Amino acid sequence: MTIVRFEGREHPLAPGQTVLAALQSAGEGLDSSCLAGVCQSCLVRAESGAIPKAAQAGLSPALVAGGYLLACVCRPEEDLTLVRADAVRQRVPVTVASLDRLSTSVVRLRLMPEAPFNYRAGQFLGLVTPGAAPRSYSIASLPSRDPWLELHIRLLPGGRVSGLVADSLRAGDRLEVVGPSGGCFYQGVDPDQPLVLAGTGTGLAPLWGILQDAIANGHRGPIRLYHGALDRAGLYLVDALEALAAKHANLTYTPCLRDSGGATGDLKEAVLAAGDARAQAAHFLCGDANLVNQLKRALFLAGARLDRLRSDPFLPTAAAKAA
């Protein structure tokens, strides 16, 4: 029987059981959200034992080298000794600075951290609200410019956190954030590379942050931003994006509406049709997980380099299937 030692306590694993399931069954207070190895809420560090390769999929080389792993997808074949990953994940109290509607279904939430919170535009954080596990939201603000953390929250019927945001959260309320996580950010892009940003729904949030970062860093190559929605009501920040495109000759903004019936109706088709010097381009794909994975595969098969494809697929929270 495989044993997991966590902060001095031993917990046996049933055959095929994940580390996260075993620890939570034993009453260990370990954060989790997506249960799919994406959000990194359940990140822990191994002090001894062999780490299954699948438990480190998607982590940065630095985290892999440091022995970090994702407990929700870790099924060890031999004993592991684990500790929390708080050393790399910050937990910071925040105050609600403002809430405003970007569309009928999207709220812009700005949070003022009460202590330094180091991140890169396009990463994501865990928003901690009363009575709920941390929920992952992408960061749309620019740390070199903005004193706040900006999140774009889609309002979903029955969503625990989005319901709080829509109905009762007010400026001055205090919450917490944990993180950041994710490798979907501008750093590492050559300023002369073509840059392709594509996303659906609130997948625009990390793309907005990455775009701001690229502009602030004087990106010289062409930048193409594609935002997909079912209909026009699903778009937001349209005026701001059109103003940026008018100001920067290398930026093209293309809204893609599934119900339009026009040439830009399908985001995947629009991105693939554009070409964008595919082998040289840096691609950032965010939003609906199915679309992101399909587009990533299609771009790779069409000649895009895998090491230049960065993605942030949005998955529903396992507990509520809503955010």
Summarize the structure.
With 323 residues, this protein is α/β, with parallel strands linked by helices. The protein is built from seven helices and 16 strands.
Can you offer a commentary on this structure?
It is a single chain. By secondary structure, the chain is an alpha/beta fold. The chain folds into three domains: 2-84, Roll (Ubiquitin-like (UB roll)); 90-181, Translation factors (Elongation Factor Tu (Ef-tu), domain 3), CATH 2.40.30; 195-314, Rossmann fold (3-Layer(aba) Sandwich). Helices cover 20% and strands 31% of the residues. It has seven helices and 16 strands. The strands form three sheets. The protein has a six-stranded antiparallel beta sheet. A five-stranded mixed beta sheet has the order 2-1-5-3-4. The protein has a five-stranded parallel beta sheet with strand order 14-13-12-15-16, sandwiched between helices. It is globular.
